[in-house]
Task: structure prediction
Amino acid sequence: MQYDWKRPNGKEGMCQVIGRKWLEWLEAQDCKTSSKTTKHAQFQRNLIETYKYVVDMHSSYEYGHEFQEAKWIVEKYKLHRTIDHILTYRKLPE
Result:
């Protein structure tokens, strides 16, 4: 798979992957540091779950299909290696 970085919105899939990873990190931090059952804490958990669902289920090409492609590549090569490859070659690894 080769990523076309010159296309309009061509970077959206990778941005979605990074956003999804950030949400997972937020979720993990909440589990480590909080046993709160306050309304605010529950609202934050629900918001994180909602955004993860939106990222996972988006149906547009830019945000859905490209996210799935970038996610597969990051799972295969890991995030740091994928970013290093993008910085060096201006495209996702194949």
Summary: The CA atoms of residues 34 and 47 lie 16 Å apart. Residues 12-33 form the longest helix (22 residues).
